[in-house]
Amino acid sequence: MKSEKVLRGEWNYPHVFAKEKQTLKKPLLFCMVLLISAAASAQVVDRVDWEQLLSRHDLVWDQIPDRWEAGAFQGNGQLGAMIFAAKDRKAFDWQIGRSDVAFNTFRIPIGDLNLKPAGKIQSGTARLDLWNAEARGTLKTDKGEIQYRSLTHSELLVQVIEIAATGQEAVTWEWTPGLAANHRKIFRKEPLLPEDQNAPPLRSSQGDVQLCFQPLQPAGGHATAWKVVRIDERKSVVYLSVGYANDEAAAKYEAVAAVKNAAKAGLESLVRSHRAWWHRFWPESFLSIPDTRLESFYWIQIYKMACGTRPGRPALDLLGPWFYRTPWAKIWWNLNIQLTYWPQLTGNRLELGESFCELIDNGAAALAANAGEFSGDSAAIGRATGYDCVGPMEADGELCDLPWAMHNYWLHYRYSMDADMLRKRVFPMLKRSINYYLHLLKEGPDGKLHIPGGFSPEYEGQPTPNPDCNIDLALLRWGCQTLLASCERLKLDDPQIPRWKSTLEKLTPYPQDENGLRISASTPFAHSHRHYSHLLMIYPLYIMTPEQPENRDLVVNSLKHWMSMPQQLKGYSFTGAASISTLLGEGDAAARYLNRLLDFRRVAPNTLYMESGPCIETPLSAAASLHDMLLSSWGDRIRVFPAVPSAWKDCTFHNLRAEGAFLVSAVRKNGKTQWIRIKSLAGECCRIRPGLEGEAKANVPLKALGDGTFEITLAKGEEAILHAGGKAPRCEIAPLPADPVMCNFYGLRSGGK
After folding, report:
1. What is the mean pLDDT of residues 452-478?
2. Structural domains of the chain ordered from first start
């Protein structure tokens, strides 16, 4: 019984859970979600029981996680914990991370809080409760049992761990500091120089708060503080925080104050405020598909992204707030950060993308300086940087990194339609990033403009110089088109308008051959390559599409040729291929590629993804690819269910977001779309391809544009219901039945994953 109760979170403090049942659980919780949804969409009845839905996707362990990539992970966009057992079973660890702590711009580990049982750990079970963002579990030792509940508070920089021991078990706690050194060199087994290391950590205490301060060159450091509050001889609560500053006293003060304030607030209060944040977060959007494993993977990615970043907190690098040995303990700008920041767009969780926009805004001076001799009017960034964005351009290096990042920023604008963002933030930096390209352009004997040198990310064997890389030509075209569109939108008479127009008129065509798009004018696509850098004009820029008759064969052949050489394909190769297949309307292929990712050996039991080190962007980009299959909005129109696999007869989504700031809901049954609800958040012109069978009808006037597309006029806050013929259907949203064999697929199961 105790093991069952700990998985439900009902052991210990029964009055807390009694109160939670009265105020948060069914049936009032269900009513609360209905009210929230009703406020956003009066014409759609939301029948999603979120606690029940997410419980079928909780990560479950019926054996002890004994490694990082199998652990339960928690976070709040800055502080995080990975929970797993030491290999010798003598300790159970909370590996603590803080994502903004860096040394020489490289991320470093904080350390491990070690639970030391009196006996040796023999077995255990655990559950990561997504709805409440809590990890709960039981450890059985040869002397008794230990039950734990853990949360990284949703807003405060505090880790909270509740412990109860039975039998002859007695828990003690120890702190093992992380190594504050250059972990890139450690990973490569290179010798550490004095400048690669720091002085040993210093331990102390302030009253009943324990402290460990790690000094960092050239000044300051990080401090970990923790306090154990005994409830009785068997029960206790641990509060832990990490401070970080350029001054030792300030770092210690930050950590100690957070711990003292948390202990003063108490467990009950922290649980309530923590859960309140997550319970508001989850219903922002919803989807359900017949593939239960993929649905589980999706919801875990949404949880993961919310653990990894928040407004006003550090941008997501490859690690998130969970450190692991890696050669990539920085931000990588040639694909990784871009793919990371896609799920929040269609997922209607734009707040999770704000940290990326803030990274660009705060780094404006450094981005200008990175452009070197062109810094007066340009901006650029090298392949990898710290959070300061300092990364000077290298000769014959990647020119594409900042322009591609600005495409992400532009998308944030397009999904929000925030005019101030476009005018004051996106347009000025996009202009600077494209100016860097314009400074490099040279007119050739053919009368065309060429980019004399560049580097297509990660493709081996490129010459120097390497003219007219397809990724550069694609981004330059997209950038000039977007700057012109922005001027029209903002009614700006920018002096560079003629230059952007002439560039588009004279820019050399994309290099291609009998196999499709090349890497560059001098480099064919001749060997296996994980990156789709040469296909960027197709995805995610959508400026070359199969809807352009002259380009359809080129798109098909380029995808086919890329996928025909599988040797070096990695996880994000499959997500990119899935999204390009969606563009082609090939839902079966898109689903096949996503399931290849899920079957890929580098996807860990907890859904984190590993190559030489963690790469958080790959699983997150899979969530974006699933969005693409259900709702896409590139170009000037919204496409509903553009690439649903033939096996997915039923699909449902609610309040997914489209470009132009529209919320869209839709239900598909027996292979046919039943109805679509679209709500305008900004009063933009709405063009939609609903994919309805039969005559399309709506509660508002529809203007047919041909090709199955309709134009709808909606004022800000107005919504329309579209359906096929006859009487308007009852619009209800509910999860699809789950495959019980695939429920709770992730975690660790005996004899399974």
Report:
1. 96
2. 2-40+71-284 (2.70.98.50), 288-633 (1.50.10.10)
